[in-house]
Write a structure and sequence with these properties.
about 80 residues; about 55% helix; mainly alpha
């Protein structure tokens, strides 16, 4: 098997990661009342709150999470599987 290497976000990508996380919260706030309230109060939802909201809205067919990886040299594929 492939050796899976996990690590932190590279410094040069931290800004993009934060931007995309905020975009996720905004989109989720459009369909989930709990996250919507936190968003309007300018509070940061916890990781657990985000997971629960994504699950709730996915089951309700109001939100579709999309996960991405790359088959090039198996980067990003193993954690997805």
């Amino acid at each position: 098997g492939e050796k899976v290497k996990e690590g932190g976000v590279p410094e040069d990508m931290k800004g993009l990661v934060e931007e995309k996380r905020l975009e996720l919260i905004e989109k989720l706030a459009d369909v989930d009342d709990e996250i919507g309230e936190l968003f309007l109060m300018e509070e940061e939802p916890s990781e657990e709150q985000l997971k629960e909201a994504i699950r709730r809205q996915t089951v309700a067919c109001k939100f579709v999470p999309v996960f991405m990886g790359s088959a090039f040299k198996n980067k990003g594929v193993q954690p997805l599987l």
